[in-house]
Amino acid sequence: MTLWSLCQAVLLVTNGLAVLHEGRFLSKYGFGRDRLAGGEFGGRTTLRGQVAGLLHAVSYLRWPLIFINVVVIVVKIIFG
């Protein structure tokens, strides 16, 4: 496993987390923004609160992810 493969794997996982829709998926399983803001998870100290915070933080990475994905696609096209 090379560093490039590891970076691609991290990018794929981040893409997968970024596309989760809050209304259709996260709220259904109890990771909605309303529960996070209401302190229902006991703040961000519990594992569930940490995961919910991560899912909401990744949603801010959508535009940088688009740029990074374009760079990776161009590199893959050029170098194979």
Give a nutshell description of this structure.
This protein has 80 residues and is mostly helical. The chain has helices spanning 3-18, 22-26, 33-37, 47-58, 62-79.
Helix-strand layout with pairing:
Layout: H1 3-18, H2 22-26, H3 33-37, H4 47-58, H5 62-79
Helix pairs in contact: 1-5
Provide keyphrases for this structure:
mainly alpha, single chain, 80 residues
What can you tell me about this protein's structure?
With 80 residues, the chain is mainly α. The protein is elongated and about 45 Å long.
Global outline: elongated
* Element pattern in H and E: HHHHH
Give the averaged pLDDT, no decimals: 80
What's the total count of β strands?
Answer: 0
Largest sheet: none
Q: Which structural class is indicated by helix and strand composition?
A: mainly alpha
Alpha-carbon distance between the termini? 16 Å
Q: Report the total helices.
A: 5
Q: Give the DSSP E fraction (strand runs of 2 or more residues).
A: under 5%
Helical percent range? Answer: over 70%
Low-confidence stretches: none
What is Rg?
16 Å
